[in-house]
Amino acid sequence: MSNSTFDFGMIGLGVMGRNLLLNMADHGFSVIGFDKDAAKGASLESAATAGTTVKGVTTLDEMVQQLSSPRKIMMLVPAGKPVDDVIESLLPLLQEGDVVIDGGNSYFGDTVRRVNYLLPKGIHFMGMGVSGGEHGARTGPSIMPGGDQNAYNHVKPLLEAIAAKVGDEPCTAYMGKNAAGHYVKMVHNGIEYAIMQLLSEAYDLLHRGMGLTNEELYEVFKTWNEGELKSFLVEITRDIFLQKDDITGKHLVDVILDKAGMKGTGKWTSQEAMNLPVAIPTIDAAVSARTLSGYKDERVQAAAIYKPVVKPVTAKKEQFIQQVGDTLYFATILCYAQGLAMLYKASEELGMDIPLDDVVKIWRGGCIIRSVLLEDFYKAYSKKKKLPNVLLDKGIARLVKKRERSARNVIKVAIANKIPGAALMNALGYYDNYTSERMSTNLIQAQRDYFGAHTYQRIDREGTFHTEWNQG
User: Fold this and answer.
1) 310-334 residue pLDDT tens
2) Residue 300: DSSP 8-state
């Protein structure tokens, strides 16, 4: 093939890079991929649909030379130093106006640094979140691009072609300036952590608490997924309960060790929320639960000392299942609300201009946290784009208030029966604090002034005050 043949280049032909390229080729784009491993390039070519233009190469120079200008190149390599290394390798080969995209889960601060490093060199750098896993990459992911608006315009037709569709609407949109794409993806992953933790706590209540078998759990989650809880994570959780283990023949979920892994995006979400500051306690609880799960040996020792006994739930079965479903719905709204409030605050503080209506719109399909609930959030943001917290929307408020009693009852049962429910409890705690006109923090301000002369404000007059406190 002659030079300047290809529309798009990919660096890294792992599962995600390969599948995204094949997706692009299926939509009529000519694509070329680089990987040092020649076998991956060959595998890419052999997997291509007949009649599409797909090529694998083993040198960056060979790839860059065959891209039409402005060149559009995406990296799917591990976050951190590997991204910087690829950028340095690319720089001598690029021309002014070329677009380089980081499609991995990079820390947003690194993306800001890279944007600023490449801007004077005339290279457009974009951070882009991609959600949907390997299947989504091949058939239609949710894509969250941010950075230079002009660079986005160069890749917009391609991204809209390959993204998941809800109706006729593609699940991709411009997420805002600088590192907005990676920031939105980070918060997406934080919400993902929280929903997964909520689902595991609901499972614990029904399995250890109510004694439901895996077959019964499958039916419960199947029913939930046919109603207002319909979502990708509920759907896959349903399927997990019926999967048998090839080795023992038992249900696979029962032989999986209770140590959860994490790659860092959830932790970043919690850390960045504290920096802003914004409260995301349900997401924090989910990150903490994964961390605590890693202390398996200590937990075994602690269980031997404290001998906790999970008491059976004595409530009526059908009624309790209904209440757990309501509680899950209630808490899921709360964790989305926390994540979206974080995006609102970050958008203002970091000058990213994140369009929240577009965020929830493109999360409706393709991504891991897709859910019918996002339609309700989309309605809320369509009415008021600059909504600091989705709980301030009256339509969302109705959905939450309707399930509040169930949430309180179920959390009471979890506490009384020694079933851990930190994410559920934190969702309710957030709700109670956020909807309180007056919190108990007046006492904290008094304490701070007492021991550190930090001053306080008053409810009855303007200004800042300090008291010489009487010591008993």
Assistant:
1) 999 999 999 999 999 999 999 999 9
2) H
